[in-house]
Amino acid sequence: MTACRVCGAHIAKASYEASAPALTSMMAFIDIPTLAYVCDGCGHAQCADLPDIETFYDTTYRISLESDDHDQIFAVTADGTPIYRTDHQAAIGLRLLDLPQGAAILDYGAGKATTLRKMCAARPDLHPHVFDVSRDYVPAWDGWVAGEDQATYTVPEAWAGRFDAIISHFVIEHVAEPVGFLKTLRALLAPGGRVLLSMPDVAANPGDMTVADHLNHFSRASLNRALQLSGFALETIDSDAFPGAFFAVALRSEEPVAMAIDGDRQEIAAAAAKAREICDFWKQATRRLDGAAKQFSGKRAAVYGSGFYGSWICSRIEADVDFRVFLDQNPQLQGSTHFNRPVLAPANLDQDVDVVFVGLNPLKARAAIAGQAALHRPGLDLVWIDG
Ligand SMILES: [Zn+2]
Predict the structure, then answer these.
(1) Are residue 170 and residue 306 in the same domain, yes or no?
(2) The domain containing residue 364 runs over which residues?
(3) 51, 206, 295, 382: most buried, per Cβ within 10 A?
């Protein structure tokens, strides 16, 4: 049993369980089981706590420190043009936040704060501030964020009530207590200030449900509840601008925010049902993949996709099949290695490979593979995680 991270309701048992190791968002395995829970009180889904969470984010979790490009491409257009995550986030932020001239803006959980840097390049009047729970990013801030506008580990008391806007991209899914986190952000905003949050949308990318360091898997209903409980009035949830993610804007409310009413119950029930459906998908996918690994035992295999799904497949099949290469259409990853295998462009698949395991978001996998001629030759088997 556990308690809901949003509404505190008691959750009797996990809806999905898998034995250790668990896979993190950085494609690293950690020695804990995967446990996913679903709350009927607010429609939230969540994973079990990480051991030693502070150390994990201080010294283990590093996004994009090695290069400016690494891991920053979130999509590739049909003609092969990469789209960079931070360019897209900056554009969405400027569009969704109505930033006054000279606005004081804080990037909370900033990492290198590339998104804020790009917003300030477009709007030189903005006054940037950054915060993260690691000092690893300080060199990336120096030169464009004043020293007194940088904070690590703890936020200065003098920052209370200072900001016209706070952006926090892909942070809230990692925090153990999201309502406490949002209350912290609220206290940093000036009256009338707004927060822009981004986070994975598990309904649009079911793989998120089993990412070990994503402690929260928000639905619209549970995000709305978390904002209400922390003194925010939700203005916008945009689930179209960024594939597989929510972008939400909420206003610091000066009055108590009305709690969910009866009309929300249907939405909560639907969100909980969707989360359980995703947990069932993972149970079936695990069984299917274990069966396929036995079926193709000893065969020469490739895995299409070197992200979360592909890494998970690798862990399930490598003991049985002769797993040789990853295929990935992301040009930044081609030529690298992942779990000791080369990552190749799909067109460069060797003729002697017998089977390709498709490690992509199952909601998009068939459309992505349909356009890859090299995967449609006679004698090549394809294994899908969704049957
Ligand atoms: Zn709940």
Answers:
(1) no
(2) 298-384
(3) 206
